[in-house]
Specification:
With 456 residues, this protein is α/β, with parallel strands linked by helices. Helices cover 46% and strands 14% of the residues. The protein folds into four domains: 3-120, Response regulator (Rossmann fold, 3-Layer(aba) Sandwich), CATH 3.40.50.2300; 148-305, P-loop containing nucleotide triphosphate hydrolases (Rossmann fold), CATH 3.40.50.300; 309-397, Orthogonal Bundle (Helicase, Ruva Protein, domain 3), CATH 1.10.8.60; 404-445.
């Protein structure tokens, strides 16, 4: 659960955004004036702020500027119905993470909120206790894991940290690609310089072009110049428009040529990393991604594994999130009982590390007597049960918490329905196969004996 501040002078929009964030499980404070917004910003120091450009008593850019100076760890989303590309550029230069234009879909708002919160997580990882694989783990930014796959990634980072060759990170959404990119930067000789991130799917094409190549009149600064001497990460590069793919390929080629000739300007001296939630080779084969750019950015490919393939790390990550939550609330971290641990390790975690973090925060809120039990976990986690039958393990989703009679009735109806299908709708055959009388079958189906069977 994160703390979110929403500032908008339109009551209906304010209520809608606040409700949307609350439904995502976050703690939301909503205000209608810039003055109140600044007061709440300084009081709450929220994880994320959503602010309208034109509030009435204040320009939203002033609030973004104040947040960037005084609360640099607060992620900012600017919302406006009066915006322009130039305004969006200015907001992002002042520290905004993203930009939404009214009217927007709630799904877009929710997705942007989650992306913003995930982007804010790495700052907390500075307090994580890295594992002692080698000296490299002391500078990678706190990558958490001791599974063979994570140890393999750490070994790769150790080898390529000071190599300026482009890196391509591929893996599912939420698997930790940005953390790997930060780890590469932190372990390199460039760690004193900026680490800048640009999400290719978050901006309209003209704004994205301006951020990459400075194409807007009066805006010559780019993400590369702002990261001079450091590292640039382009997230979701598979979403980069084809026209900009061509320009990026040419730009990276120019960087390579100038570096070889020892004629590389400071504003172009960066380590380039790209990430994609979709396999780029498939995009190349499908004609949506340029082959020449693919080969240029994938000199060092790294596959970031989903959480379900490294179950050894689940308990370590869960403990980390519990400690972080305890530090934030000034409480003692709760313990996870053995039954809850078994459920955590047996769940597939389609949302990967981000979903695990949300589950731990929820569990902390419901835990009693300093202990997390299965009932404290999200239903989709606690209802997945592994059952051993005749030495074979099968996984079942059981609605723990529902009355036994209700569950049995539901299963009976399901079994009868499927047996009817098997018998082509014949109630007589179904009753015989189930070993019950036709009267019992009709009663369990909620029918009367005089009801006619459907004709075939």
């Amino acid at each position: 659960m994160a703390t979110i501040l929403v500032i908008d002078d339109e009551a209906s929009i304010l209520k809608l955004m606040a409700k949307s964030c609350t439904q995502q499980g976050h703690e939301v404070t909503a205000v209608q004036t810039g003055k109140e917004g600044l007061e709440e910003l300084d009081r709450l120091k929220p994880d994320l702020m959503i602010v309208d450009l034109l509030i009435g008593d204040m320009n939203g850019l002033e609030i973004i500027r104040h947040s960037n100076i005084n609360h640099p760890h607060t992620q900012v989303i600017m919302v406006t119905g009066h915006g322009s590309v130039e305004t969006a550029v200015e907001a992002m230069r002042l520290g905004a993470f993203d930009y939404l234009t009214k009217p927007f879909e709630l799904a877009d708002l929710q997705r942007t909120v989650e992306l913003g919160l995930q982007r804010g997580n790495p700052s907390a990882s500075r307090t994580a206790e890295p594992f002692q694989l080698s000296a490299i783990t002391q500078t990678t930014g706190g990558m958490i894991g001791e599974s063979p796959k994570i140890r393999g990634i750490l070994k790769i980072i150790e080898k390529i940290a000071d190599n300026d060759s482009p890196v391509l990170l591929e893996g599912e959404f939420g698997s930790g690609k940005q953390m790997v990119a930060r780890s590469i930067h932190n372990a390199s000789r460039r760690n004193h310089a900026p680490f800048k991130v640009l999400q290719c799917s978050a901006l309209p094409e003209d704004l994205l072009e301006a951020e990459l190549f400075g194409s807007l009149v009066g805006h010559t600064e780019t993400i590369f110049s702002r990261a001079a001497g450091g590292t640039v990460l382009l997230e979701e590069i598979h979403m980069l428009p084809v026209r900009l793919q061509s320009k990026l390929e040419s730009y990276l080629e120019e960087i390579n040529t100038r570096r070889v000739m020892n004629n590389l300007p400071v504003k172009m001296d960066v380590r380039f990393i790209a990430s994609s939630a979709k396999p780029l080779q498939e995009c190349v084969e499908g004609g949506t991604f340029r082959e020449d750019l693919f080969y240029k950015i994938s000199v060092i490919p790294i596959e970031v594994p989903p959480l379900r393939s490294r179950t050894e790390d689940i308990e370590l990550l869960a403990d980390h999130f519990l400690r972080k939550y305890a530090e934030r609330t000034g409480t003692k971290p709760p313990e996870v009982d053995k039954y809850a641990k078994r459920l955590l390790e047996g769940y597939s975690w389609p949302g990967n590390v981000g979903e695990l973090q949300n589950a731990m925060e929820r569990a902390c809120a419901f835990a009693e007597a300093g202990r997390i039990r299965p009932v404290d976990l999200p239903p989709k986690v606690s209802q997945k049960v592994e059952i051993t039958d005749d030495d074979e393990k099968t996984t079942h989703h059981l609605p723990i918490g529902v009355g036994l009679s209700d569950y049995v009735k539901k299963q009976e109806k399901l079994f009868i329905r499927e047996t009817l299908k098997y018998n082509g709708g014949s109630r007589e055959k179904t009753a015989s196969m189930l070993g019950v009388s036709i009267a019992t079958l009709y009663r369990k189906m909620g029918l009367k004996l005089e009801d006619k069977a459907p004709s075939h």
